[in-house]
Amino acid sequence: MSPNPADSVFVRACRGEPTPYTPVWFMRQAGRALPEYRALREGSPMLPSCFRPELVTEITLQPVRRYGVDAAILFSDIVVPLKAIDVDLDIVPGTGPVIARPIRTWEDLEQLRPLEQGDVEPVLQAVKELVAELGPKPLIGFCGAPFTLASYLVEGGPSREHLKTKALMYGDPELWGALLTRLADITGEFLRLQVEAGVSVVQVFDSWAGTLTPQDYRQRVLRHSARVLAHVEGVPKIHFGVGTGELLGLMGEAGADVVGVDWRVPLDLAAGRVGDRAVQGNLDPALVVAAPWETVEAATLDVLARGRVAKGHIFNLGHGVLPDTDPDVLERVVELVHDTTRG
Fold this sequence. Notes:
Elements: H1 9-14, H2 35-41, H3 46-49, H4 53-67, E1 72-73, H5 80-84, E2 89-92, E3 96-99, H6 106-109, H7 121-134, E4 139-144, H8 146-155, H9 163-171, H10 173-197, E5 201-206, H11 214-220, H12 222-230, E6 237-241, H13 248-253, E7 258-260, H14 267-274, E8 278-283, H15 287-290, H16 293-307, E9 313-317, H17 327-341
Parallel strand pairs: 1-4, 4-5, 5-6, 6-7, 7-8, 8-9
Antiparallel strand pairs: 2-3
């Protein structure tokens, strides 16, 4: 294979090109399941850690060394660009992002200024260091989708029902549109800067989009996700959401080359919904924690078999690695995927 990450198996699979085997990486592979990560992060709060280039570089590389995955993903968080533009927020352990001043009025919206390169220079420095370290292995950059970031900003933190978010979306569509437009430009610029610094692929995470109906997604969200992806040129784009089985086709329409699929929808069915695009996924992350190896092996082989009908397939979990996951099991999954699909 070429030493150029753009010609790697992972990037070729994203583009739907033939590959010698199925590439694999894991969402949240850089983090909680690894004892070396916990040791390194001890005493370092999450958001400050994301702005320390030496820490970001080491944490990003840890799973590449441990698992033998086909791509690294930048150690970061979806709220990093918001923190970078001085939104008063924190990631509270056991809770998630908490916003000091939720956005519910036009006056509140003024917290969201445009993102500039200097705001995220430490992140971009880490990207450059990682690209040099990784050589032919691609680095994935990412951001949060406008709807998911808006849900945190409007609710003031994580929510199951998203009542305040939907009240704003339905009750003040003009403010809602302005909020998502600003978020799209902030996150789109963050992705563009990551690409300029050297990432080979980008992924947009829409963790809460599954709370929407297809009609609401199309009318109130789709164009904003498309606006994010339109900032990026020259690299493949992955679009992932949780509980988005009924939205997969729409998420592809936003401009993705690859649609990530959670564990609820079989990949062969998902492939039929996303059109001429590759798919990513979708082993249930609970299996690699709770099930015996024979069950994990059978489920992995089933995902691989179903993924063959798609234009391209990147093997992944259907969501992020859970904290109680045994790293040795993930290593065995990588070996199984590679050995089963090679040649």
